[in-house]
Amino acid sequence: MKLKDSLLELLGRDPIKPVKEDISAPAQVIHKLHREDKSRITQIRAELAHKAAHDAPQKWRRRRWAVLIVVNLLFVLSYWLDIQMLEGALTGSRFVGFHMADLNSALQVMLAFKEVVINLLIGIVTVALMWWLLGGRTFCSWVCPYHLLAEWAEILHLKLADKKLVKDHPFDRRTRTAFWLVFALLALVTGYTVFETISPVGILSRALIYGPGVALAWVATLLLFEIFYSRRAWCRYACPIGLTYGLVGSTSPLVVTHKLENCFHEGECRKVCLVPHVLDTVIKGRAKDVQTEIGADCTRCGRCVDACPTQSLTFKFKGIGKHL
Amino acid sequence: MSVLNPLIKQKQRRQFLRSALLMVGVVGVSLLGAIPVLGQWAKRLRPPGALKEREFLASCIKCGQCVQVCPVNAIKLADLDEGFGVGSPYIDARAQACDFSCDGLQCVLACPTGALTHHINYPHEAKMAVAKVVSPQTCLAVQGKGFKGLARGADYSGKLRFEEIDRWNPIPLAEHPFDLEICDLCVRLCPIEIRANQCDAGKPPSGDPGQCPPRHAIRLVDIDQDGSTKKMRPEILDGCVGCGVCEMVCPAEPAVIVMDSTASRGLSA
Asked: Could you give the number of structural domains in chain A?
């Protein structure tokens, strides 16, 4: 996928349906073969029916939850047991003495304070490099404690939606870009880190490490909103942190790639995806190339990798990936 | 271009409206955070080195690293009722003051953003607050009384470092009884006065003359005698940095001396 399209979709533009001229010749051939390969499609239907009867594989989800819990536990235990591995909270910390700063929190501070001390700069550069290397929004699905709670809330939402008790109300995805700009502007103009007041990431991280407080009521409000009104609303339409990390990861070597040859367009991946617009390419006839890298908004959570019955979506580390 | 189905159009209009409402709602909630700050609902005593309140709140990244390094656990983090101040560190001096027992200003060193300015190196350079004698009538010294026992009772959990007992580990105040002819706890336990005395004796802390405070912070002065008992009153001096130890140790209830954090904090980035 072109960087420009990836960024525009990150900012909220809807994916554009490609015209025939945009689709490469080898991809066109595969599209045609797919249309004709009726027996393969019947076979996949059977596979899917089997999968629906059993539990879908959750390999990546289990790994991810383990990493997320371990990272947050490392923060908690560093303080409680005074082992000094990962001191501080997700907004700002020290990993075995080395500074790390959450990029969005650091941005809020820089805009409000209008000054950057060297320790903060070190923290920013370290974290930016780390998340560029690891995929940007990887922070969201592999580290953010709100993400985990929101995933549980989502399971509940989907159960209720299945019973027709709740309905998902989608928002315009450009809202998140608007939030990012408004909160940047508010920090700059008011001189206060306004977003930190309601950041569920900061609130949760501090609550885990330093003990709970009434701020958790705000987090609970967001979760209830997601359960009863709009699926994954905060992560999808609001969180400026996600957008910041999306920008960082837009040129990351770690991506999920789509192999058209294996894809039979069942759409299982889009059903589980936090940001299904990045998987537009899996829709029948949309893939422009034989292989497509999924865009910057992808959180590299791996749920699509688990969900795909034909291994058409896989993690890839560009450059040295083949040697790993 | 084909004419959009009116149903789709209506759906889009609703989605736009919803999104605008979400925007107004969330930004509105976040701006509610201005009320406790502008209304100064909580006038907090901040850790040593804290910049002026406005700059402090702008620069604090709310990570709590200062909390983690404090040897007496003096630093707490504010909750959401303090609005924009949520997650920012403060000290409740009456519960646990900063006694500078780390000597090296660990919280300042831990601060990643300079909200606790890295421009200070010694306790006497901190400008946390200024102590105020608010109720002299309840002061034991003013009444000419001594003090015997535990300053804040046996259940009090606050700690202080007593160098003559253990240089490195602060001990609970409840494990350190006093027997004083006239109560002078606020003076004898003042970290600035302790340092000044050590320096006068030619033994500055860690052998570092930089630790020597240039000015005194508190003293007891004689009150005009009208009877036979000696009566004294505490007087706050220029060298007070507002660490809160005098407020913490005062046996009177409520404390005779309290920290006024609006009276100091001249520190700029």
From this structure: 1
